[in-house]
């Protein structure tokens, strides 16, 4: 067994946001997700669910596993009232983290001031919870827009900048990650983190992003305080690798 792959699997497990954001999710699905989060090889960093399941997930999990939920998801509209209602629901139900979608369509249309104000309001309302801002890098398309979105998220006080919702054609890519990580490093914010989400299915995929994060932010950033993976299927491959079996997942981006 490749020891480097096993090391990547251990890091990916510790930094994993085990996610279920299907429209038809039920309480039984969330119960199964929370059981899955507590593996024989150790716990994941967090589970990520719809706001309506936060209280259930929080009750089912030990405090060491964070409960994240999404706001303004997946469309990323400029509807601040709706988004703040999502944030309030997450906080009141005992959630630890909010994954909010940057209004990427508005940014593409040139409304950067409105986007900045939106993110500032969400940051104010979500404190003291951890805030991850999803920029939907695949829809932004150009390096300039990806960099701009990352800067806007960081300027608003995001704890993490996240690639994708996983609901569009293009999820995380090494090219987008490189741009985002460069902006995070250049920001001078010592606690700002990066989250790869959307299409991260194998330990090999995760290993590539881990290497990028280390190169940009240093080895000290390879922990759940600064690096996350959002995925539903990645855990199966992590467990296979850590059990000494052959990786079964199809590598996507890498």
Count of distinct structural domains: 1
Widest beta sheet: strand line-up: 1-4-5-6-7-8-9-10
- Protein structure class: alpha/beta
Helix and strand run? HEHEEEHEHEHHEHHEHEHEH
Strand content: 15-25%
Major sheet: size, sense and barrel closure? 8 strands, parallel, barrel
How many strand segments? 10
CA-atom Rg in angstroms: 17 Å
Low-confidence region ranges: none
Please state the oligomeric state of the protein chains shown: single chain
Distance between the termini: 19 Å
Kindly provide the name of the CATH class.
Alpha Beta
Report mean pLDDT, rounded to a whole number: 96
Would you give an account of this structure?
α9 links the parallel β8 and β9. The protein is built from 11 helices and 10 strands. The protein is α/β, with parallel strands linked by helices. The mean pLDDT is 96. The protein has one domain: Aldolase class I (TIM Barrel), CATH 3.20.20.70.
Quick overview of this protein structure:
With 254 residues, the protein is an alpha/beta fold. The chain has helices at residues 3-14, 27-36, 54-60, 80-92, 104-108, 112-126, 137-140, 143-156, 174-187, 203-217, 234-242; strands at residues 16-19, 38-39, 42-43, 46-49, 66-71, 97-101, 130-134, 160-162, 193-197, 227-231. α6 (112-126) packs parallel to α8.
Question: Which key terms come to mind for this protein?
Answer:
254 residues; alpha/beta; TIM Barrel; 8-stranded parallel barrel; two-stranded antiparallel ribbon; 11 helices; globular
Write the layout of secondary structure elements.
Elements: H1 3-14, E1 16-19, H2 27-36, E2 38-39, E3 42-43, E4 46-49, H3 54-60, E5 66-71, H4 80-92, E6 97-101, H5 104-108, H6 112-126, E7 130-134, H7 137-140, H8 143-156, E8 160-162, H9 174-187, E9 193-197, H10 203-217, E10 227-231, H11 234-242
Parallel strand pairs: 1-4, 1-10, 4-5, 5-6, 6-7, 7-8, 8-9, 9-10
Antiparallel strand pairs: 2-3
Helix pairs in contact: 1-10, 1-11, 4-6, 6-8, 8-9, 9-10
